[in-house]
UniProtKB/TrEMBL annotation:
Name of protein: Peptidase M1 membrane alanine aminopeptidase domain-containing protein
Keywords: Aminopeptidase, Hydrolase, Metal-binding, Metalloprotease, Protease, Zinc
Residues that hold Zn(2+) according to the record: 45, 49, 68
Residues forming the catalytic site: 46
A GO molecular-function annotation: metalloaminopeptidase activity
Lineage of origin: Eukaryota, Metazoa, Ecdysozoa, Nematoda, Chromadorea
Record site: Transition state stabilizer: 131
Peptidase M1 membrane alanine aminopeptidase domain boundaries: 1-194
Extent of the signal sequence: none
Cofactor note (record): Binds 1 zinc ion per subunit.
Cofactor: Zn(2+)
Similarity remark: Belongs to the peptidase M1 family.
Gene Ontology biological process terms from the UniProt entry: peptide catabolic process; proteolysis
Amino acid sequence: MAFPDFAAGAMENWGLVTYRERVLLFNEKLYTPLQKQYVATVVAHELAHQWFGNLVTMKWWNDLWLNEGFATLMEYAGVDAIDPNYKMEDYFLLDALDNALARDAMATSHPLSFPILKAEDVSEAFDQISYDKGASVMRMLRTVLGETNIYLTKHAYSNAEHTDLWKALTEVVPDNLTSWNGDKFDVDDFAKKWTEQMGFPVITVSTTSKGVQLTQKRFKMDENAVESSRFKNAKFW
C-alpha cells in the first residue's frame, strides 16, 4: 500500500507492507533506470522481511542485524533473480559492502551484535553496520556454506538470536569443509569474529631473512582516533 506521506519510507507490516508513493509507484515516462532499480530494491527488502523479521523475529534489539542484514542482502539477490541485467550481485560490492567498510573503519563503529540496555539506544542499531555489514557477513556465509532455509524452518513463528543462526548453519556444514588449520569448519568460531567485535582486518605481508611474515590489525581511517572502551576490540579474525 502506498501513502503520499510516510515517515518511515517503507514498513514491513506482515501482510500489509506500506510504502511512500515514490518507492512503490513507478512511471516509465517519469522515472530514470536508477529510480526503477531503487523501487525494485525497496520492494525486495520489505518482502524479504516477511520471512526475516516477521516469520522469524530477533529476540532483542541487540540482534536487529539479523532482520536488516538478511533483508538488505535480499535487496540485491531478489532483484538479480528477477532481472539479471541489473547485475545486482555485482553492484552489492560497490554499494553495500563499500558502505559497510567505510563505516566499520571508523573508531565510532560498533559490533553487529551489541547490548541494547535502554530504549534510547535502539535507534543506534539502525545504521549501516546492521544493514550493510550485516548483509556482507550473510553474503560471506552464503558463499562458504551455500543456501539453506534451515534457520527459517527451525524458528518459524518464533524468536531467535545470532547463536541460533550459527547452530542452524552448523547442521549443514559439509564434512569436507575445513578451517585454515585443517579442523572441520566451525560456524560459531568463524562468525563471532565478525559479529561480536567491530572492524575488519588489514593484512600486512613483509619479507624477512627467514621468509615471509604476515600480520593483521584492525583497519581504521584515522589511526589516532580512540575507540570506545564499550566496544573493546580483540583484534583477531
